[in-house]
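Sample pair:
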Amino acid sequence: MRRRIIESAARIIGDRGYAEASVARIVEDVGISQGTFYRYFETRQDLFDVVLPTYAERMLEFIQEHVPKDSTGLDREMQRMQAFLDFVSDHPWFARVLDEASVQAPVANAAYFDRVVNGYVRALNRAVDRGEIEGYEPDELEGIAIALLAARNYYAKVYLSSMGRVGESRAAVLKGYRAFIARALFLPLPR
């Protein structure tokens, strides 16, 4: 039941925003009473604080399942991006949940970014250790991870979500992302 409530809240937030994701609307969607809701969450905000972290874990698991373990370098980064876009295609409301969380669910937003940014930094460090990425200092990798996540979130919001317009094709988005990533990460920096 807890999972169903979280899933309903995520869809409603994605469709209407956090402000319109009332307990009444969520329980109606799930088909439960408000009493049942309050057995699982003390407040609406308590629910909001778990929606984004729950989907962050699902997103990371999805990406991990869809990127071959032996993949490296630019190919691995592109497979991560493709898996992310696939996840967002399956969960088109995700971009709005993420976009509004910084204001409406700051606890969830902080948990999301801690988990996702730290994971990305670890992945970039492994690429550095394997010699796939050169010329960056370890303290620069967090900024790079944040920039890459911002690019992904922008693509999700504009190209795949119900919030944005359907502009460029997915192939064009991936082509541009590949060109950017190849030049930004996988070419050695001049010494």
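The chain has nine helices and no strands.
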